[in-house]
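Lecture notes, unit on protein representations.

Consider one protein chain, 199 amino acids long.
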Amino acid sequence: MSTQLLDQIIYPEDRTALFIDGANLYSAARALQFDIDYKKLLVEFRSRCRLVRANYYTALLEDQEFSPLRPLIDWLDYNGYALITKPAREYTDQSGRRRVKGDMDIELAVGMLEAAAYIDHAFLFSGDGDFTALVAAMQRRGVRVTVVSTVRSSPPMVSDDLRRQADTFLDLADLTGVFGRPPRPQAGRHDEDGEDAGR
């Protein structure tokens, strides 16, 4: 069903771009208990359309000697993805737990709006409701927008407003057979910002 779904919404002549909210996509996949195979994801889109860009957005802790996210970032950087990163901010929450804050919403929104002039179809891998106005702005510029997230987790990982605004909504749960793989062992997970190097 998943590849048939992609066949219905991806046109071979479409100039297409992927906009991946790294932390949000990882959280959605983790909620569904699988990992994203980014190599398969790229192959899948390249085989179906004119893939113009595949942008991956994430914040990184710069002062860490080693970040568990670094191997993934390096792999993506050398294998067809455009990496958009910025320094993350580390803080301690009210319960004394170490947290990392690194919101990439502005960077992703700017990237999508800049791409609107030369793409036909944008895939937004995020369920963040803050992107609802962005999706509407892309549609006003003549770009179809597909949102990829999930309603099958508890709680759902996608905002209802975002899902309604999108031209198409794809549930990540339907795509596990296309670019998913079983999750790796929990050791080495980086939970502060919902990111993981073992993808």
